[in-house]
Amino acid sequence: MEDPQVPRWPLTPACRWMGERALRVETGVTTLARVEQLASGMFNEIEDVIAADGSILLIFKQAARPSQPLLAALSQPVDGSPGRMGTRHILSVRMDAESGPDLAFCATHAGLDLSGFVREFTRIEFTVAFLGFQPGFPYLEGLPAHWAVPRHARPRVRVPAGSVALGGCHAGVYPVAGPGGWRVIGQTAAKLFDPRREPPALLVPGDRVCFEIEA
Amino acid sequence: MNGLPVEILRPGLCDLLMDGGRQGWGRMGVPAGGAADRSALAAANRLVGNGPDAPAIEMVGRGPQLYFPRGGVIALTGAPFRAARAAGLVAGWNQTLVLAAEEILRLGEPVTGYRCWLAIRGGFAVAPILGSASALPQVGWGGVTGRPLRVGDRLYSEPAGGGVHLLRAQPPGVDEGAPLRVVAGPQTGALTDVGLASFFGGCFRVDVASDRRGIRLAGPRVIARGQVFPTQGVVPGAIQVPPDGQPIILGWDGPVTGGYPVVATVIGADLPRLAQLRPGAGVRFVTVDVEEARALAPPEWTVEDWA
Questions:
Q1: Which of B28, B29, B232 comes nearest A57 by C-beta?
Q2: Does residue A56 register a pLDDT over 90?
Q3: Smallest Cβ distance to B183: which of A19, A50, A134?
């Protein structure tokens, strides 16, 4: 029996499978709201929800498939702004030639002198769009469009933990040391990820972040 | 009852402690990781009386030399490696092995395939991080500070009570020469017609620069239209095509998001085969649809008493 209230599969062209266990849902500006809608734990078949840049990836438990209530939820529009505003964090950052080897490059690219760049950067209130690359690595939105910088053609072999960096239109912070191609502009002592903390990631999608110069 | 020690006399190419992994932490940027073939891990554990996801040693390419000062009950599954025990004793695969005190197990290179698992009765004692003992080298978690085992490392099994059953297992029959089955998309449309033909018609070789984060392929250039893609969530088995046209199959420790188009994803039933791809191995792809992929359950092992 078909329930006329429940949309038939495929829902919309905006949902595409990545393998048989993950469904990519195009979410545009509603990404955070969708995450909030689906991460509530209401849908038992979902193992994980990975937010990204204008899409989310729903990962289903082994042998599970999307339930009718989930399909119905996906077909419902959500408000572009998430219901709750995330926590606001202030991260202390050191921004100088030593802690930010690409600071001068980024300032020049933005058409500012060093102090002007630092001043403008610390005025921005960023939003955590999503996490990825490393555990707890935040992709921060809020940079002026013309600040977008190309990544290093050859990634650095080792970027220290706590590096604050720009990559394309995002800012980010490296939770652990490792190879990385983003332009490093500073250093923070904040612990971005601690598996013993609940939740382990300091910043989660929807949170807001400001940087202030370390006293 | 105390656990038993195991000492590394000589490490293999890359011996990592692995269990069932960290499912459900992708939202925090954490890859699931865990044994590259969970059914082979489960079988090894079953042979020694453990739960399916107990921590075991995952070995790749060349195995270690291990010293068991007080003996131990172990099992090996996965690719058969050259192996030696004391004179006259067989280090057989897929069966319960009872090692005497002071035995040394010498593992060499795989005869076929690439990875194998060594489970010990009780499982290896490792403090879990986010619910898993699995090593994650790029972050330094799990196993022995996340790194491959070294000379002098001493691991311990968890204590285990009860008697020992001698069991043997039958691995699922796998046609190693068959193409990897994939679900096409979500960005198959990123490829040009020529790119599509080279991806689905071409034969690739596994590059030596492959690891648990990604299996890099070399072969006909898979040409994508020069679009820039927004970063998206990705899963192990997803096949990304970077601008150089050489596909990368994301592995168990790969990132949870990626910025290259994903043109296809290896189905769950064929993920264990990724674990056995050694550098130089040939890889071809064939598509199945989502429903077919679901119906193709992961290959099953059978375990029986070893009479």
A1: B232
A2: yes
A3: A19
- Residue B147's Cβ-side half-sphere holds a number of Cα atoms within 13 Å equal to 6
For residue B206, the one-letter residue type is: V
- The strand pairing partners of A91, in sequence order, are A211
Plot region of A19 (φ>0 → left; ψ -120 to 50 → alpha; else → beta): left
Measured between CA atoms, the residue of chain A closest to residue B290 is A20
Q: Which of A136, A134, A112, A138 is nearest to A123 (CA)?
A: A112
CATH 2.40.100.10 maps onto chain B at: 180-295
The residue behind tokens 């994803």 is B265
Residue B140 at interface with chain A, using a CB cutoff of 8 Å: yes
Q: What is the CATH T-level fold of the domain B180-295, as seen in this structure?
A: Cyclophilin (2.40.100)
Q: What tokens does A170 get?
A: 């995002």
Closest CA to B70 of B5, B125, B124, B10: B5
Is residue B132 within 8 Å of B21, Cβ to Cβ? yes
Quick check: ipTM above 0.90?
yes
Q: What is the pTM of this model?
A: 0.93
Tell me which residue in A18, A199, A201 faces B235 most closely, judged by beta carbons: A18
Contact A137 B29 (CB under 8 A): yes
